[in-house]
Amino acid sequence: MSADRQISQTSLLNIVVEGLEHLSDPGGLALLVFWAGPGGGKTTFLTALKGMCSDVVLLGPWEVRTTSSDTLVQEIPAAVERAPGGKKRLLLLDDLGELLRRDEGEPFFELEREVVCPILERGDTLIVATSHAPLIQWREYDVRIRMKNMPIPPLTREEVAIWAELRQMDPQRVFALSLGYPQILAWLQRQPDLSQDQVDRRIVERFLSTLPEESRRLAEVASLFPAFDLASLRCALSAEEDSESFYGKYLERIQALIRSGLVFWDVETVGAYRFRVGVVRRLLARSFLHRHPEESIQIHRRAAAYYQREALRYAYLDRVLVSALYHTAHAYRTESPGGVCLQWVKDTLYRWKGANWDAVLRAWRTGAGDPEVVEELRDLLGAIVMRQITQLLLKAAAQAGTVIEEQVQEVW
């Protein structure tokens, strides 16, 4: 299991406690933004935080979605000034990113200017905010260097087991249905007998109901991809339109997904579009597979063929290897996915002599930046095949003389 996938929500709470301890340090963090998708546990996280920090002055939380920006600018500084001295302050803002959706984001920048900057100068108040996506739009340098974005992860298998046992529910069934996603756990708490089909349909409704019909269809198909671009979509969908009309049409649909917060362009890791929250992608993909099994297999087979061809160009191997193995594993999930993937790596390895092995191994270890992909590959291929593929890649890297020892030790 990827170490990233094992980060617990308790660990995030401890980050806040540590931030309070070092608040007065020169250059210490003064603004922490915890982000998650819809139903990802943002408000629950703030509630848990309030219960942990009893020795500080708690201010808020302010629910930004239901509060006018003028009210925020007036109330927050006043509350900070009224707070008793001698103790550190913890200021809570729920769904801060909502301000970016108003009046072209101007309320967000006003809050930064009139509220956040003065509070940072005080040195006695830690701001903790939640958002549906990382907040990187800050204009002020002092804010950018003293803030940090962190995702709120789904609950680990161990955390789900504790949650389920407290409610006398089957931990394995609960984790299988929810993958640790807080929204699904909330559904199960209210209706413990929900079936897989009912959960799948609620997932689609929860995440895609506000999208136009064509973008909604695209989101379901795209959830089958760890990362995607227009070329891979066109191949997987066997589109008959000429490339210009296809690209124009699908760019508009992708823009709708970006505006909804579902996907973004990941220029650093894969140079392609990907879902912002890996477990949401995985839940949508599972729903699509259950409802459209034959179509899912066909899409995966076409995508596997596309990415296997792309992987023949070693210069781009770090950007396509994970997708090639992921789609191949899904395409043969009912047969022998481990054997097929292992044989493909053996047959193709000789073509990768000039690859950037540090980058390739990093991509393989991290699921190209998505811990949920690592989880899926381990489930599909099995731990033995995962290790065998890893050893093949390590051997090729060692022969190329480019892999550093630390990188080798980090790979499974």
SSE blueprint:
Blueprint: H1 9-21, E1 31-35, H2 42-52, E2 57-63, H3 69-82, E3 89-94, H4 106-122, E4 125-131, H5 141-145, E5 147-151, H6 157-166, H7 171-178, H8 182-190, H9 196-208, H10 213-222, H11 230-236, H12 243-260, E6 263-266, E7 272-275, H13 278-291, H14 293-310, H15 317-331, H16 337-348, H17 357-366, H18 371-381, H19 383-400, H20 405-410
Parallel strand pairs: 1-4, 1-5, 2-3, 3-4
Antiparallel strand pairs: 6-7
Helix pairs in contact: 1-2, 3-4, 6-7, 9-13, 10-12, 10-13, 11-14, 13-14, 14-15, 15-16, 15-17, 15-18, 16-19, 17-19, 18-19
Word description of this protein:
With 412 residues, this protein is an alpha/beta fold. It has two domains: 3-151, P-loop containing nucleotide triphosphate hydrolases (Rossmann fold); 213-410, no CATH class. Helices cover 58% and strands 9% of the residues. The chain is built from 20 helices and seven strands. The strands form two sheets. A five-stranded parallel beta sheet has the order 2-3-4-1-5, sandwiched between helices. A two-stranded antiparallel ribbon has the order 6-7. It starts with 8 loop residues before the first helix and ends with a helix. The relative contact order is 0.09.
| Helical fraction | 55-70%
Biggest sheet, open or closed, and with what strands and sense? Answer: 5 strands, parallel
Run of helices and strands: HEHEHEHEHEHHHHHHHEEHHHHHHHH
Strand content: 5-15%
Give me the Rg, rounded. Answer: 23 Å
Class derived from helix and strand content: alpha/beta
Mean pLDDT, all residues: 90
The number of domains: 2
Shape: globular
Q: How many strand segments?
A: 7
Number of helix segments? 20
Assembly type: single chain
Which residue ranges are poorly predicted, with pLDDT under 50 across at least 5 consecutive positions?
1-6, 404-409
Order of strands, widest sheet: 2-3-4-1-5
Head-to-tail CA distance between termini: 8 Å
